[in-house]
Amino acid sequence: MRKLKLIIFFLLSLSLVPTLVGCAGGKTYESTGEHFDDSIITTKVKASILGDAKLKLLQISVETFKGVVQLSGFVNSNEAATRAVDLTRRVKGVKQVNNSLIVK
User: How many C-alpha atoms does 28 have within 13 Å on its Cβ side?
Assistant: First the structure.
């Protein structure tokens, strides 16, 4: 009976290893937790841009990978681009902002 329990425990342990390793992140891909964190950051950045009267959210695309936010799209002025970057930097969890905004 003890041998059977040991075998079952061993098989369960082996089945959990791929599950845990599958959730880990690397340099080029996110872990499950990082993906959710980045989704939250993206949503907060979009909300702050949407709440600003000088910026138009539909002109600005926001993507986040491991806390690094990429802003891209077209804006009407340099001031609007600077404002978008400033608002993004204020969001909790943002490690870096890459500004690829183009002034029309």
Answer: 0
Query: 49-84, pLDDT tens digit by residue?
Result: 999 888 877 789 999 999 999 999 999 999 999 999
| CA separation, residue 6 to residues 15, 16, 19 (Å) | 14, 15, 21
| DSSP state at residue 88 | H
- Global pTM reads 0.73
> Given its phi and psi angles, is residue 73 left (phi above 0), alpha (psi -120 to 50 degrees) or beta?
left
Contact assessment for residue 99 and residue 87, using Cβ atoms and an 8 Å cutoff: no
- Determine phi and psi for 71, rounding to 5 degrees: -100, 130
